[in-house]
Amino acid sequence: MKVWPWLMRTVGVICLVFPVGGFYFQILAVQRVLRHLILNPQIPFFHAAFFTMTAIDAILLIALVFVGVLLLRLQRKAATIYTWLVVIMNAYIAVVGGLWLLPEPVGRSIGAASGIGNVGIGPLLMFPIPFVYPLASVLVVNLAQRKLNPGTGSAGMRGDGRASQIS
Known about the structure:
Blueprint: H1 3-35, H2 46-72, H3 77-99, H4 106-117, H5 122-126, H6 132-148
Helix pairs in contact: 1-2, 1-6, 2-3, 2-4, 3-6
């Protein structure tokens, strides 16, 4: 069926488009923080939290581009890598939210930085409905992998143990 390669490639294109916007908004946020230094005594760890989140977002966006290329090339391992990347991004957002509960002033600093510190991956996880697209895309990619490769394991390996390409 021709729809499965098309669906995998569509998710791959989205994986390439969202990081472009993510990097753009991330650069704007970094410029804003550097131009208007926040010196609020209630959030003394704001800059450390913000730049840590920005670095993690950049790593996740680069990984998303890598996975997007694998999905466009219909690499069998792309579905597994994409699934893990989405799990990691969701876990990261959950952990950051949990860190807000740390004692003052650390939790408050992390909470303040979260508002602009996660603008890189935020649109991917929140558009159009929070956490629906990532879940739906993981289901589509894994279903497409199984339809394109019936009888193969989820590890993306041929019977001889070598990785192969979906065609």
